[in-house]
């Protein structure tokens, strides 16, 4: 997706060979118009996949997920990382280690909102080692629902996330595939 | 906003005289179409307010904020409650106590994205005692930016949040104003 790649080149900051900071338009400040285009693109790619629900994880997954949900006409659920007074019962949980936050956290979805009839599209802002994606898959499987695929805004293709997901048979659609961040430069997979 | 009030009556759960659970369409599962209508309504109400930026707080504020940003054509910033490896420098912070989570947390915005030229619309999912709103106001003032007003999805009008914000001279636009949750019933301000 060319507009996204241009935005990454123009406004992304390479903090190290591993870390790309896109706080200017995705992870802190959000560009709503770009999110709209991202929603259009995911909706187009998964148009025939029979998606009944979108699942993402707070906080940065919410904007691309909600735009995709709007285009596809399906509800969005965001997995919670933090305990809430109102989110208490019927929880499906899984643990995930976040590299960028350096903490292990428990993520949770209420089984009230997911059933074995659901065919779920997972949307997330980043795919790196795939830990968050695997935790979401675990929760969706606990609910007895099936998985239509994963829509990723930015994939770090030099990490193992995609490879392992594909090995498990999941369809992964990434809108920007970053081949390398070496030398402070973002290069994309052709 | 009638569609929102109907949704609250149909799918909201009164957990106590103080707590309304709307995890079915706002705080956990999100109804993208309803969020689109909410964005339209905030954009209509603040059309002439000269808004240059929207500020919200993760996680539940993001969906209504991004839809409003899309309609108004302005960027959205979400204040972070949790430390991130990429959000490190030039932070403006404030502390807020969350009643529903029973924790005091520090919220942060990078001053990279807010300047004294900005006229900010604050969007949030709930207004109760106004603690989160006051923390956002503090951060926006630290950046030297001005405040166009506050757009709230659900206001608990029986708590002091709106009263105190109006006393400080801020414009508050709430799409559903809950007068009482007594007896397990949601009643709205006429």
Write a concise synopsis of the structure shown.
Chains A, B: Pathway: Purine metabolism; XMP biosynthesis via salvage pathway; XMP from xanthine: step 1/1. Chain A is of the alpha/beta class. Chain A has a single domain, classed as Rossmann fold (3-Layer(aba) Sandwich).
Description:
The structure is a homodimer of 190-residue chains. Chain A has five helices and eleven strands, in the order H-E-E-E-H-E-H-E-E-E-E-H-E-H-E-E. Chain A is α/β, with parallel strands linked by helices and 190 residues long. Chain A has one domain: Rossmann fold (3-Layer(aba) Sandwich), CATH 3.40.50.2020. The interface between A and B is large, with 45 and 45 residues. Strand 3 of chain A pairs antiparallel with strand 5 of chain B, so a sheet runs across the interface.
Q: What structural keywords apply?
A:
homodimer, 190 residues, alpha/beta, Rossmann fold, six-stranded mixed beta sheet, two-stranded antiparallel ribbon, 5 helices, 33% strand, globular, glycosyltransferase (chains A, B), transferase (chains A, B), xanthine phosphoribosyltransferase activity (chains A, B)
């Amino acid at each position: 997706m060319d507009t996204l790649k241009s935005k990454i080149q123009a406004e992304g900051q390479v903090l190290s060979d591993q870390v790309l900071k896109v706080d200017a338009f995705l992870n802190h400040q959000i560009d709503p118009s770009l999110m709209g285009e991202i929603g259009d693109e995911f909706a187009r790619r998964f148009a025939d996949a029979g998606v009944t629900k979108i699942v993402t994880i707070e906080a940065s997954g919410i904007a691309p997920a909600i735009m995709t949900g709007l285009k596809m006409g399906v509800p969005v659920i965001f997995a919670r990382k933090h305990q809430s007074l109102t989110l208490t019962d019927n929880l499906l949980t899984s643990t995930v280690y976040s590299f960028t936050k350096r903490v292990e956290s428990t993520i949770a979805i209420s089984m009230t909102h997911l059933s074995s009839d659901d065919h779920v599209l997972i949307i997330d802002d980043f795919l790196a080692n795939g830990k968050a994606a695997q935790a979401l898959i675990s929760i969706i499987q606990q609910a007895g629902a099936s998985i239509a695929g994963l829509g990723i805004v930015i994939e770090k293709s030099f990490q193992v996330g995609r490879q392992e997901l594909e090995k498990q048979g999941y369809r992964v659609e990434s809108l920007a595939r970053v081949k390398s961040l070496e030398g402070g430069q973002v290069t994309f997979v052709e």
